[in-house]
Amino acid sequence: xxxxxxxxLAPQGRDLSQCPYGRYHHLPKELSAIGHExxxxxxxxxxxxxxxxxxxxxxxxxxxxxxxxxxxxSKWLAEVAIEMKAxxxxxxxxxxxxxxxxxxxxxxxxxxxxxxxxxxxxxMPWNLPLxxxxxxxxxxxxxxxxxxPQLAALLAxxxxxxxxxxxxxxDPEFFARPRDECRSQLNLPTDAPIxxxxxxxxxxxxxxxxxxxxxxxxxxxxNARLLLSGNPPSWATDRPGVxxxxxxxxxxxxxxxxxxxxxCVVSDTxxxxxxxxxxKLYEAFACQIRVAATNTPPIAWIANGQAAxxxxxxxxxxxxxxxxxxxxxxxxxxxxxxxxxxxxxxxSALLDGASxxxxx
Length: 360
Known about the structure:
The chain is α/β, with parallel strands linked by helices. It contains 13 helices and 14 strands. It folds into two domains: 2-169 and 340-354, Rossmann fold, CATH 3.40.50.2000; 179-328, Glycogen Phosphorylase B (Rossmann fold, 3-Layer(aba) Sandwich), CATH 3.40.50.2000. The chain has helices spanning 23-33, 65-84, 95-108, 128-140, 149-155, 179-185, 209-220, 234-237, 253-258, 279-286, 297-303, 316-328, 340-354; strands at 2-8, 37-44, 51-55, 58-64, 88-92, 111-116, 143-146, 164-165, 194-197, 225-228, 242-244, 262-265, 290-294, 308-311.
């Protein structure tokens, strides 16, 4: 089959033309590896120049939505699909991208698939016109896939068929490495219990409870350290025992996770958190690192059978108990973590099952 993945240029803030990673790099890449002809259309909401490059057997073309507008971007995507003789346009990474993909699929007279890894409506809850267009796109799509069953059930309210689940996976760089070697590379203490948090600091993720929980952990493990990446708020870093790494290059993130005794994954019961499947959870399990995490339905679904201790949302004391208990675990789960290769094969089968000859 000939497939075009349409997604925003920088999902989760990382430019796919410069730093390929995650769902919308590895799914297209592995689909290409098993014989499909695949292209990625990178849609940039900023005023940027065109993109044209090839990586890992996948063509990557990019345009500025700000320059072309919604209609112009849809026409450009349709022209690419017609030239490629695409069987499918896959709208992914955000609601507005799915709406553009729907319009382009009609112009190109090819099939439409939509894929979601989050509840996109939670990003801008006030944007009701976009929600309405997204729901119309869901209703008209030939295939809709989601990163987990809770999100699939939510999307199924607007889709006329069953929504299939294609879970997330860890990128290939995430695998178990010697802890002491990783700590040495980051100049971390070798004899201290290290808890790592590598997510964002937003209320929708519930991350604000982590600092209070770590203060309580230090009362029970006085030499504990909290390892943070990115740009956490100063009140979270200006505490005893907190180590701030700053923004790490992509190749160093597996090192940081493997340096930890316990990875902390914090979420919340919210319109975002109830349908969020954190990539950092998959990465920690792939590195065979113990996990302390918030007990939301998606996290509990991912953590089933893994070395994880779950805590009630919004409770510093519950998260404290989970962190200390996870640190005390002796056995790390030895179940096999599916890779993007397996995810791509599953997605290919779904596309094949939903395919039909569309008139051109």
